[in-house]
Write a structure and sequence with these properties.
Bound molecules: the ligand CSC[C@H]1O[C@H](OP(=O)(O)O)[C@H](O)[C@@H]1O
Distance between the termini: 35 Å
CATH class of the largest domain: Alpha Beta
Number of domains: 3
Main location: cytoplasm
Organism: Ogataea philodendri
EC number: 5.3.1.23
Number of strands: 18
CATH topology of the largest domain: Rossmann fold
Structural class: alpha/beta
Helix content: 25-40%
Function: Catalyzes the interconversion of methylthioribose-1-phosphate (MTR-1-P) into methylthioribulose-1-phosphate (MTRu-1-P).
Largest sheet: 7 strands, mixed
Keywords: Amino-acid biosynthesis, Cytoplasm, Isomerase, Methionine biosynthesis, Nucleus
Order of helices and strands: EEEHHHHHEHEHEHEEEHEEHEEEEEEE
Shape: globular
CATH architecture of the largest domain: 3-Layer(aba) Sandwich
Strand order of the largest sheet: 6-5-4-7-10-17-18
Length: 408
């Protein structure tokens, strides 16, 4: 069974999300009660879950956002919640309040486009609805389908990624064992399950059972400043028993070079050279420029220096933004300074094991920098399409024709 970040109960229309701020120290699920905060009411909303990084990963953000719409509507329409400011007696006013709430939700994480794409489809359903009952039922069905489709997409991305990778290996005449590298977390926790870039890695691991040419090792970048690589990807890879090593983001060139030159004196975890760098995406625009977690762009630059390494972006088509032409048009989210200067983790005892308190592993926040300093903290960067060898979606793997990507 793979890890579940999102638990939606279709019958009761309730949503619980894994608190990813506590992973891997603790497994805590939080109930989401509404779309966005409402003044004077103590509730945990989809907006807060997304903005506060309790839920992260572009597809997971979309799903939690869309489910939170259904949860709020269920509370208003079926449980007589009156404090959310809806006029249930007037359809036009009801719709207008709902659209306002969705507009707030969309602001929670600006770079990832999946939530916007999902909300735009919800807006169309709302526009077309002729009663609050049909509006609710249609949005519920839509959100459930979105979740199921995302899971199917991830498995298809895995299969299409494997197809691309083996076609490249065959073209090159490469045989034997190889390694791959990834950044951030793009697995079960960032999606409905299975994952995008990490889905391809999962599929490669399965493929390794019956192939002589196979993935032998994964290098996971820790992904500063928020460490989704060391906290989440390392957790998923360990859980799935996929051989891997964690590296810091600034070890990449030395590692790639050491493996390419087979430097036996560098205590390398595996002799298998890196053949593929596989990353997720938060937004891919029409020309193939790809926004992903900060640090992705430099991986593509390093890959471009080694003809034997292919750089792959993996994402469902819900991550494609057909309204923007180039990466220059992507808004890059700036995150709070404290995400770079402070870190929270589990307390470790003298024996190297986590110290447990009454509520699981004891957690502590520490500062790693002087207090009050200036910080630049863009959460994402943009990798230009010319540095990307393939973009894998659930439909197929796309490669460039005359230097350009065409998705439609
Ligand atoms: C399949 S997840 C896509 C994407 O989400 C991550 O961002 P964040 O952890 O800030 O939500 C990361 O950039 C992943 O590649």
């Amino acid at each position: 069974m793979s890890l579940e970040a999102i638990k939606f109960d279709e019958k009761r229309a309730t949503l619980r999300i894994l608190n990813q701020l506590l992973v891997p120290y603790e497994t805590q699920y939080l109930a989401v009660d509404a779309i966005a905060p409402v003044e004077g009411i103590d509730l945990f909303s989809g907006y807060t879950a997304i903005k506060g990084m309790y839920t992260r990963g572009a597809p997971a953000i979309m799903l939690v956002g869309c489910f939170s719409v259904v949860v709020e509507l269920n509370r208003v329409l079926n449980e007589n919640e009156t404090r959310f400011g809806y006029d249930v007696a007037d359809l036009a006013r009801f719709k207008s309040r709902l659209l306002d709430r969705i507009s707030v939700l969309i602001q929670s994480r600006p770079t990832a486009v999946n939530l916007l794409n999902g909300c735009n489809e919800m807006r169309q359903i709302i526009d077309a609805s002729t009663s609050t009952t049909s509006l609710y039922t249609d949005l519920l069905q839509f959100a459930v389908k979105l979740y199921k489709d995302d899971l199917k997409s991830n498995h298809a991305i895995g299969a299409n990624g494997v197809e691309y990778i083996y076609s490249e290996l065959e073209k090159e005449g490469f045989t034997g064992e190889f390694s791959v590298m990834t950044i951030c977390n793009t697995g079960s926790l960032a999606t409905s399950g299975y994952g995008t870039a990490l889905g391809i890695i999962r599929a490669l691991h399965q493929e390794a059972q019956h192939r002589a040419t196979k993935m032998a090792h994964v290098y996971a970048c820790e992904t500063r400043p928020y460490n989704q690589g060391s906290r989440l990807t390392a957790y998923e890879l360990q859980y799935e028993k996929i051989p891997f090593s964690l590296i810091t983001d600034n070890m990449v060139s030395f590692l790639v070079d050491s493996l390419a030159k087979n430097k036996a004196n560098r205590s390398l975890p595996s002799a298998a050279p890196i053949k593929f760098i596989i990353v997720g995406a938060d937004r891919i625009v029409k020309n193939g420029d790809l926004a992903n977690k900060i640090g992705t762009f430099q991986l593509s630059l390093i890959a471009s220096l080694y003809p034997s390494i292919k750089f792959i972006g993996a994402a469902p088509t819900t991550t494609i933004d057909f309204t923007r032409s180039t990466g220059d048009e992507i808004v890059i989210e700036q995150r709070p300074k404290k995400e770079l200067t402070q870190i929270m983790g589990g307390v470790v005892g003298p024996d190297g094991a986590f110290v447990h308190g009454n509520n699981g592993v004891q957690m502590q926040k520490i500062s790693m920098a002087p207090v009050g300093i200036d910080v630049w903290n863009p959460s994402f960067d943009v990798t230009p399409h010319d540095k990307i060898d393939a973009i894998v979606t659930e439909k197929k793997f796309f490669t460039k024709t005359n230097g350009s990507y065409t998705f439609e």
